[in-house]
Amino acid sequence: MSNENRSNYPSTLTLDNFSSTTKLAANEVSIPVGSKESLNEKDELYNPYEHREVDHPNSSAGALIHLLKSSLGSGILAMPNAFKNAGLIFGLVGTIVVGFLCTYCVHILVTASHVICKRSKTPVLGFSETCGAVFKYGPKKLRKFATTAKYTVDIALVVTYFMGNCVYVVFIAESLLKVFEHWFEGHGINLRLYMVIIMGFLLISAQVRELKHLVPFSFLANLCLIVAFGITLYYMFIQINPPSSVPGFSSFSTLPLFFSTVIFAMEGIGVVMPVENTMKKPQQFLGCPGVLNIAMAIVVLLYTVIGFFGYLRYGAKTEASITLNLPVEEIPAQIVNVLIPIAVFLTYNLQMYVPLDIIWKNLLSHKINGTVNRNIAQVLMRCIFVCGTIAIAVAVPNLEPIISLVGSICFSTLGLLVPAIVDTVLYWEEGLGCLKWRLIQNIFLAAFSIFALVSGTVTSIESLINSFNKE
Q1: CA atoms of 98 and 95, how far apart (whole Å)
Q2: What pLDDT score does 381 carry?
Q3: Domain parsing of the chain, residue ranges
Q4: Is 126 left (phi over 0), alpha (psi -120 to 50) or beta?
Q5: Amino acid transporter transmembrane domain location, by residue (predicted)?
Q6: Range list of H helices, 238-370
Q7: Angle 146-183/331-359 helices, nearest 10 degrees?
Q8: pLDDT(240) > 60
Q9: How far apart are CA 389 and CA 392, in angstroms?
Q10: 434-453: per-residue pLDDT in tens?
Q11: What's the CA gap between 439 and 54, in Å, rounded?
Q12: Residue 130 near residue 425 (C-beta atoms within 8 A)
């Protein structure tokens, strides 16, 4: 490949500094402008793998570690509460089904990216670029929506990570409140005031801009999570109640909360493109067993075990986060309720990287000139983002419905609906398979996504309204 072509198609994202929340933005490239009508059979001979230039490619084992690290976050602590909203047996089956659907949708997205890279002769495409390119090289009537599709996904990513950080703020505040209420009984500081106090520290840490400078944050966060998970598992298995102590099925009214919470905890579709795009042998990402299948099998197994035995242990008293069920008067439980908020605090900045990168590249970078002005703009943008998440968290300081709301609106759309649309548009002119099986499958995925979106949103909003009335 010539130097000119390499500059047009940069694909030098490295995952040496990759963390559990560095999910998308760094691998984006521009969709090449070319004649869409010139596509022919020779385009199928183009192999994007042969044209990728990655400075530090990851092995299959490294890619597996990145996928696991991105999925095994604080969302796993909400799984027992998800089981409470579904029942023990339905939660067990439902978690496995949702895990399968999430994995399958990732397969759809990665496969679509491979196909569209061949058509557009592009070595690598990110999430939003794949969506835009599918429309650009799809049916003629839909090509005018290419830019809209790309920016719609970008907006969805910004909203998703913004709301995810709102969950982080509430999670940090609730955990610290539980500990400090035990240590300093009657101190008079309420949950919202904790959030305001946290804001000062977040405003400072948010000024770290480079991913390589965030590596220590990720390392310490993972260390805290490992220790906290170990202690939490000890409390879960110290007493195992009989399955008959909890219902096998909860109620239809709480099922939307279950699906939304599981989707929130498990969905990580944004991470797959950076990981796959920087693999030394990307052919090993999909397939059987494949890096993706192995990673998701481990994730589903761990999430199912935590949800199943956590609900079995605490039953109807299961909190929005299992750590809130731990006996705060005991030292190990206090350690958990300190380590978890520290880990989430250290992860906040990494979670913030993706939406701010999208905002900066699409709205600000080309409008602001001069080093001083750009630095000032970066500081202000980051401060506004932090203050926005604090404002939402202060307005809605209830963890369970926020998790459900984010899962139903954001992750169900990005993780289920978008891949279904992309797959349909990509294969529309090819007949969608025998008996239009692709169309049938994508209608099912879209219907499930819309069900999670609508029912989860309604149920979450009702829960939020009830929490306000109680106050």
Answers
A1: 5
A2: 92
A3: 3-27+41-170+225-325+399-470
A4: beta
A5: 61-461
A6: 255-266, 272-277, 291-314, 331-359
A7: 150
A8: yes
A9: 5
A10: 888 999 999 999 999 998 88
A11: 36
A12: no
Closest residue by Cα to residue 236 from 314, 329, 327, 178 = 314
**DSSP 8-state secondary structure symbol assigned to residue 55:** S
If you average pLDDT over residues 55-62, what whole number do you get? 72
Q: Of 122-131, 342-351, 438-447, which one has max mean pLDDT?
A: 438-447
3-state helix, strand, coil in the chain (%, to 5): 75, 0, 25
Q: Per residue in 261-275, pLDDT tens?
A: 888 777 666 667 777
State the amino acid at position 61 in one-letter form. Answer: A
Distance CA 132, CA 23 (A): 18
How many angstroms separate the CA atoms of 396 and 166, rounded? 9
CB-CB contact of 314 with 216 (8 Å): no
Residues 289-322 pLDDT 10s: 888 889 889 889 989 999 999 999 999 899 888 8
Q: Which residue has the tokens 């950080």?
A: 165
Max distance between CA atoms of the chain, in angstroms, equals 74
Structure tokens at 310: 């956590």
Residue type, 60: S
pLDDT at residue 469 in the model: 64
- Single-letter residue type at 151: Y
Beta carbons within 8 Å of 439's beta carbon, 6+ residues apart: 424, 432, 433
Cβ atoms of 29 and 124 within 8 Å: the answer is yes
pTM score: 0.77
Type of residue numbered 116: I
Answer yes or no: are the C-beta atoms of 280 and 274 closer than 8 Å. no
**R_g of the chain computed on alpha carbons:** 22
Residue 34 has pLDDT above 60, yes or no: no
Name the nearest CA neighbour of 353 among 213, 211, 215, 212: 211
What DSSP line would sit under 10-41, residue for residue? Answer: ------TT--TT--SGGG--PPPP--GGG--G
The answer, yes or no, to whether the previous bond of 289 is cis (omega within 30 of 0) is yes
Token pair, residue 115, equals: 């196909």
Task: Measure the CA dihedral 312/318/321/324, to 10°.
Answer: -110
Strand partners of residue 58: 279
